[in-house]
Write a structure and sequence with these properties.
heterodimer, A: 115 residues, mainly beta, B: mainly beta, six-stranded mixed beta sheet, five-stranded antiparallel beta sheet, 58% strand
Chain lengths: 115, 111
């Protein structure tokens, strides 16, 4: 079974703190994604990566950065956390294809609260 | 910009009933469409993936159809069970690996 794990299920941080969310997948997938999910807004793509050290901005990259130093690990960084970044964060991975994309596999999510 | 809409936002049905969930999208230039299930406080589980060249996919009691020209997909659930209660999300993949999700339909199956 494909497994995508996220470092924390629940996280509480203070405004202005630097926050790291870690995601690891064990299926040698090329693509990795970070989403946030908010009521009424659905899932919105923050960043994605299709290879080591490669990254692309999604729909809402402001206030976030990412790091992909190894193929299996994709980190989301909140440089200075703000209350409007309180959300559920979901990581996903998939195989890469130039004509389509395989199923995305999701981690369990990290519910981040910024006070 | 691709927009994905799911109607209704919530649905409550008695156990055993067959039901249809709807998904519509504005840009028909898609690579594939995927249906997911999400249980409360959990991540997403993939149910069915339909490539753009396909019309439908089936898995057990689930059947998903795709009509690219009209920008619509349906997820049919046969003989619903209380364990089917969850939020169902559809997602479309466009160019540049861009995935756009709908806001979901929350399904409750009443025993």
């Amino acid at each position: 079974d494909v497994k995508v794990t996220q470092s924390s299920r629940y996280l509480v941080k203070r405004t202005g703190e630097k926050v790291f969310l870690e995601c690891v997948q064990d299926m040698d997938h090329e693509n990795m994604f970070w989403y946030r999910q908010d009521p009424g807004l659905g899932l919105r793509l923050i960043y994605f990566s299709y290879d080591v050290k490669m990254k692309e901005k999604g729909d809402i990259p402001e206030g976030y950065s990412v790091s992909r130093e190894k193929k299996e690990r994709f980190s989301l960084i909140l440089e200075s956390a703000s209350t409007n970044q309180t959300s559920m964060y979901l990581c996903a991975s998939s195989r890469f294809s130039r004509t389509s994309t395989d199923t995305q596999y999701f981690g369990p999510g990290t519910r981040l609260t910024v006070l | 910009k691709q927009e994905v809409t799911q109607i209704p936002a919530a649905l409550s049905v008695p156990e055993g009933e067959n039901l249809v969930l709807n998904c519509s999208f504005t840009d028909s230039a898609i690579y594939n469409l995927q249906w997911f299930r999400q249980d409360p406080g959990k991540g997403l589980t993939s149910l069915l993936l339909i490539q753009s060249s396909q019309r439908e996919q089936t898995s057990g009691r689930l059947n998903a159809s795709l009509d690219k020209s009209s920008g619509r997909s349906t997820l049919y659930i046969a003989a619903s069970q209380p364990g089917d209660s969850a939020t169902y999300l559809c997602a479309v993949l466009g160019g540049y690996q861009k995935v756009t999700f709908g806001t979901g339909t929350k399904l409750q199956v009443i025993p």
